[in-house]
Every structure is written in structure tokens, then in C-alpha cells.
Amino acid sequence: MILTYNYEDLQNIKKQMQMKNIKSDEKIYYFIKVVKDTLEFMFENNLTNKSKKDLEKELLEFKNELLKHTTLSYKQLESQYKYKYITTKDCYINSM
Fold this sequence. Notes:
Helix content: 55-70%
Radius of gyration: 13 Å
Shape: globular
Largest sheet: none
Low-confidence stretches: none
Distance between the termini: 14 Å
Mean pLDDT: 86
């Protein structure tokens, strides 16, 4: 899922996600996954002037911030939820 096509909007969405009181490991995984997908989409389609390295660093910082809410690593979360159907409830979607 792509959250937005606008890099500045993505920054606001990420802040909203970080400010939520996340209690679900599934939601943590989902938030990280959608931000990762969005950053990859932005890079592949030249929607930001950031380098791939900058975007990877940004994702790592975001991931670390959300992983503070769980005792599991991202790899553990991924193995648990990668193939599980997750609804879009409580997602932040921003249209163009």
C-alpha cells in the first residue's frame, strides 16, 4: 500500500504514526511495512530528491522508533505477520 505520493505528507503521516500509543505488534509491523513500501515507491518513481541511502536511513530511524513499543525484532514481526491479512483500519491514506 502506498500512503501518499508527496514526501512532505509522508513526514506528517509518520509523525502521526509515532505519536499513536501502539500496543499491537501487528500494527507496528504494518506501519513499518507501509512506510517502507511508500519510500521505495517514491524512490523508484523519482518523487523525492532524496538518495536511496537517505531513505534507508529514514526508514531505519522510523523502524527503531516503533520497535521501542515491542520486545520483538523486525525480523520476528515479519515472520509472524508477513502473510497475514491486515485490514486498513487506522491507516493514514493521503490522496493526491
